[in-house]
Amino acid sequence: MLLTGRKLAHGTRVIVVAVVMVWAGRTPAWAQAASDPNPGNLTITGGVDFLNAYLFRGIPQDDTGVITWPYGDLGIALHSGDGIVKSVGVNVGLWNSLHTGAAGSDGPSRKLWYESDFYSTFGLGFGKGASLGVTYTAYTSPNGSFNTVRELSFKFAFDDTRSLGRMASKPYVIVARELDGQADGGAEEGTYLEIGAAPGFPVAGLAVNVPLRAGFSLGDYYEGVSGDERFGFFSVAGIVTVPLSSMPTRVGSWNIHGGVEYVYLGDRNAEILGDTSKVIGSIGIGLSY
Amino acid sequence: MFVIDGVRRSALAVVAAVSVMVVISAPAFAQEAAKDPNPGAMTVTGSLDFLNQYMFRGIRQNSSGIAVWPAIDLGLAAFSGEGGLKSVGINFGTWNSLHTGDTGQDGPSGKLWYESDFYAALGFGFGGGTSFTTTYTAYTSPNNGFTTVKEIMFKLAVDDSSKLGKGAVKPYIAIAQEFDTDVARGQADGGENAGTYLELGIAPGYAAPKAGIAFPIKVGMSLSNYYELAGEDNKFGFFSIAGIATIPLGGTTNFGSWNIHGGVEYQRLGDTTAAFNLDDDGLPKKNQVIGSIGFGFSY
To answer: Is A67 inside a domain boundary?
Structure first.
């Protein structure tokens, strides 16, 4: 099965990292760093995930073989203060998708490396948990499966944990504009809208997150034979994260995580997939330092 | 044309080493961080360099425009001790080359991103400054400038600074073997057979309070099929000598240690590498001068 776009993942990864940072709680003393191993302004996050299918914003990429996602992010905290702007940060990172199936080593190219994305984000944090991030992303395909897509996205998020505690839903809105190249392989560059929430809660000593997302076309993002379809997908997932240490160690905070995501597709994406929905299972290891 | 590694990474390593030495004596005003911002066991290093010419082990990779090299490395200090084995480290990283000229944006692909390498290294440190490192590298070309080259390299190095002080030369030897190849595929020389590469080098340097300078010298040779040309494997690949100056941008801050660096490298090429380095008249050119400037950080 394949292909015309790329991942659904960034949101899910961010949730996993956030869960781990909240979750540091108990660990054998031998693994504990005497103090914070990284009190400076740079932060590293990364991980490797394994999945059975890859849909990018509902657009089917591959559901054959095993899909592996290695990724890494470097965050730079430029400013923190008590004014209107509470924090300023920059992130740069790489996200990759390696496929053993039809879009990768078993496909026409015979090459595993289906996708490599570079992104850079400028983020502002405001009061009451509000934040605005502007991200430039270049989605590239080392095995030549799709043409490079360049995109500028704006994300407005609200962390309501402080006001709602365990009932926090952490809503967000993303608007992304393709600058060059297209995820849908259509006639025009598209504009994408995503609305989501990421509630989380502890269950039996584990961190469980239930991210909900819906993706829409604001213009030419889901182009099909009958024109541009507004509804792209709806997704709900359950993600369990187990920290491998309760305190940050000298090599950071590591975790294993896994989950199941149910994706319901719009007509255009369903036609490519050959089904109206897809269940995606994933498991992986993550790091925050 | 084809592919990369030892030239640049050696140069960058020299730059990093010099900048660490220089930073130690940075002026007090620049030392924002009262203490180490990163006392843990992970280290990030990165750099962005601009060059007029990209030569991979003597093999020319572009003939017009400039090359831009963004690189980042994550190091993990897995072990340190006082026995025969002093340290164990693991490094992962990505190194990239973006070309504005004939092998990039102005070339047939119209795409800037000529090369993206992923590598993973396992290093052991012993007494007397001796280290042994095994590195796996996948050299890939996002704009299909060459076919993916996979390589395993072994490097034995001696840091003789503790014995020789400012007279240290830091010699090393590296042997790299290409694998998973076919005719004209998966090889730096685009040849018929997988190659085995040998590099001998030294990296003397001097760090003053406000700047450091290093003079890396190296020779690249084929142990087997690394510099193939018309069915013949030429043993001598290249000789290189460079001068690299590094100026720290303040001391160690909460953002790590930053520097700007620049230098000039001269390469004398062998028959195969000269055949890849044609002049305007289409004749092999045995001499090549490379200028570079960039900035780097270590955290």
So the answer is: yes
B297 to chain A: nearest residue by CA?
A42
φ, ψ (nearest 5 deg) of residue B163:
-90, -40
What residues of chain A have any CB closer than 8 angstroms to a CB in chain B?
Answer: 33, 35, 37-42, 44, 46, 72, 74, 76, 94, 111, 113, 116, 140, 142, 144, 148, 250-252, 289
In this prediction, residue A33 carries a pLDDT of 55
Query: Domain containing B109 — which CATH number?
Result: 2.40.160.40
Per-residue pLDDT band for A139 (boundaries 50, 70, 90) equals very high
Into how many domains does chain B fold?
A: 1
Residue B1 lies in a domain: no
In chain B, which residue's Cα lies nearest the Cα of A116? Answer: B142
Question: Mutation test of the interface with chain B: which of A45, A87, A116, choosing the one with the most B Cβ atoms within 10 A?
Answer: A116
Is a pLDDT exceeding 90 seen at residue B33?
no
CATH number of the domain that A246 lies in?
2.40.160.40
A242: domain range? Answer: 10-288
Domain for residue B293, yes or no?
yes
| A247 CB-side CA count, 13 A | 14
Residue A221 falls inside a structural domain? yes
Bridge partners for A228 per DSSP: A223
Of how many residues is chain B composed? 299
**Partner A contacted by B31 (CB < 8 A):** no
List chain B residues with CB under 8 Å of A46.
74
Instruction: Point out the least confidently predicted range of A169-173, B74-78, B142-146.
Output: B142-146
Of the segments A172-176, B19-23, B208-212, which one has the largest average pLDDT value? A172-176
**Interface probe, candidates B35, B42, B117, chain A, greatest A C-beta count within 10 A:** B42
Give pLDDT, residue A29. Answer: 39
Chain B's closest residue to A287, CA to CA, is: B42
A3 found inside a domain: no
pLDDT tens figures, B254-276: 999 999 999 999 999 999 999 99
Residue B34, pLDDT score: 54
Quickly count: other Cβ atoms within 10 Å of residue A203's Cβ: 10
* Tokens read off for B69: 């090299």
What average pLDDT does this structure show over B156-177?
94
In this predicted structure, the answer to whether residue A69 has a pLDDT above a threshold of 70 is yes
Beta-carbon contacts of residue A37 (< 8 Å; ≥ 6 apart): A248, A249, A250, A251, A252, A289, B38, B39, B40, B41, B42
Task: Please state, in angstroms and rounded to a whole number, the distance separating the CA atoms of residues A108 and A102.
Answer: 8
| Nearest CA-CA partner of B168 in B124, B216, B210 | B216
- Can you give the residue range of the structural domain that contains B110? 6-298
Q: Is residue B166 part of a domain?
A: yes
Cα(B78)–Cα(A32) distance, integer angstroms: 15
Domain-embedded: residue B48: yes
Number of compact structural domains in chain A: 1
Contact: B255, A76; criterion CB under 8 Å? yes
B41 touches chain A (CB under 8 A): yes
Q: Is B38's Cβ below 8 Å from some Cβ in A?
A: yes
How many CB pairs below 8 Å do chains A and B form together? Answer: 65
The answer to whether residue A4 sits within a structural domain is: no
Q: Is A280 exposed, middle or buried (0-12, 13-18, 19+ CB in 10 A)?
A: buried
Write out chain B residues lying below 8 Å of A111, CB-based.
148
- Cross-chain CB nearest to B256 (options A40, A72, A113): A40
Lowest mean pLDDT among A141-150, B22-31, B214-223, B227-236: B22-31
